[in-house]
Every structure is written in structure tokens, then in C-alpha cells.
Design goal:
Length: 219
């Protein structure tokens, strides 16, 4: 998969939240978005998966213009601004409901992914009674369980303990090795650099720097 962000801008009222963003993203890489709250990270993620209409510019996925040729990436897993689930369903029931839409992940796969992130698939507790950390884990599982070609995770390490963060790093590394294209954001620069191959820094809706984590010099 290749994604080209071509001079994308987004204006809400009189406020410009994205300004002439241009990026080239490829499968087999993890891209980390760095920036303060309100910098435009989440809005860019929304643009990448077609959740917003750009004021100008375009997002092109494998030669198709998002929101013109296609309304949504063909294969995508998303966690943006907190997960949303059916409050009286258990974690497993919620994930099975999501999986039934596409029919890609079976119950065995779902259970395996839940265990990888420290969730008990046989836990009968309703989602509304989950702790913040459990809700975050379930949201991550929902995004990755069908092994989509594009994975977008907004602040996935929020409310996670170090053991779960390490497991998340392992899962994302495995997904990258399978050729997935992954975009994540994180307030913690150290965590972001541990998770990412490339860092894209955004400030006031603009890309101010873009560098490889393993490179000696910024590009």
C-alpha cells in the first residue's frame, strides 16, 4: 500500500487545522506523529482514513483519491480518540460483533489477540465496567485483529502499563514485518521513537520536520 498526501489543508470555520500537508507513506513502515494537543495529528489521521473531507488537496491510496474514487481505505483498522463499544456487551462479544461485519477474523484469532494484550476473552464483565486501560486494550485489539493493510492508532499507549506497552511494540513490529502500513501518535517522545521507523513532527497544522529514527540526520 502507498498513501500520498498531496498538499492537504483542512479549515474549520476561521481556523486552519491542517495546512498544505504533503507526505508519502509506504507499507512495511511505522510512522509516528509527534506534536502537542491541537497540533493537527488527530485531524491528519482522520484525513488518512476518510473520516473528514479536506478543504483542499487530496489523499491518494494506491492510485485512488479518497472521498472521490473511494470513501474509505479498503483494509484499515482505526483507533482514534478513544474506542467506542456496546456498553452492555463483554469484550469478546463486542469484538465478535465487529468481526462479523467483514468475516475476516474468527473467534480463535480474536481470543489470541485479546490474550496478547492481557485481556481475558472469557471475562463476562460488561464493557461499561472496564477500566480505562482495559478499554484501551480492547480498542487496540479491534484495530489489529483482522490484520488490515493500514493501521491507524491515536495515542495507543494511553493508560497502558509497561508490560502491555512492550507487547504492543511486539505486535506492531510483527505487523510491520508482514508489510502493513502503520501510523501512530503518542505524546511520549521516547515511546514514539521506540515504536516508529520515522517521525513526522506537526506544529500548528504543518509538518515542521520528518526524520528516520535510525538516521543520524533529519531529512
Amino acid at each position: 500500500m502507498q498513501i500520498d498526501v498531496n498538499s492537504v489543508s483542512k479549515q474549520i470555520g476561521s481556523q486552519t487545522v491542517l495546512e498544505h500537508i504533503t507526505l508519502h507513506l509506504e507499507s512495511g513502515h511505522i510512522y509516528g506523529l509527534k506534536g502537542r494537543n491541537g497540533s493537527g495529528k488527530t485531524m491528519l489521521m482522520r484525513a488518512l482514513c476518510g473520516l473528514i473531507k479536506c478543504t483542499s488537496g487530496e489523499v491518494v491510496i494506491d492510485g485512488q483519491v479518497l472521498r472521490r474514487d473511494i470513501s474509505f481505505p479498503k483494509s484499515v483498522g482505526v483507533l482514534i480518540e478513544g474506542p467506542g463499544f456496546i456498553s452492555n456487551y463483554s469484550g469478546l462479544e463486542n469484538l465478535k460483533t465487529i468481526a462479523s461485519i467483514k468475516g475476516i477474523a474468527d473467534e480463535k484469532q480474536i481470543r489470541e489477540k485479546m490474550r496478547e494484550l492481557g485481556l481475558d476473552p472469557d471475562e463476562k464483565k460488561a464493557y461499561r465496567k472496564y477500566s480505562l486501560g482495559m478499554k484501551q486494550k480492547l480498542g487496540i485489539v479491534a484495530a489489529v485483529m483482522e490484520e488490515p493493510e493500514l493501521i491507524i492508532l491515536d495515542e495507543p499507549t494511553n493508560a497502558l502499563d509497561e508490560k502491555t506497552r512492550e507487547q504492543l511494540r511486539k505486535i506492531l513490529s510483527e505487523m510491520r514485518a508482514k508489510g502493513k502500513l502503520i501510523v501512530i501518535s503518542c505524546h511520549d517522545t521516547e515511546n514514539l521513537e521506540e515504536l516508529s521507523d520515522e517521525i513526522i513532527e506537526i506544529k500548528e497544522g504543518k509538518v515542521v520536520s520528518h526524520w528516520s529514527v535510525n538516521a543520524d540526520e533529519e531529512s
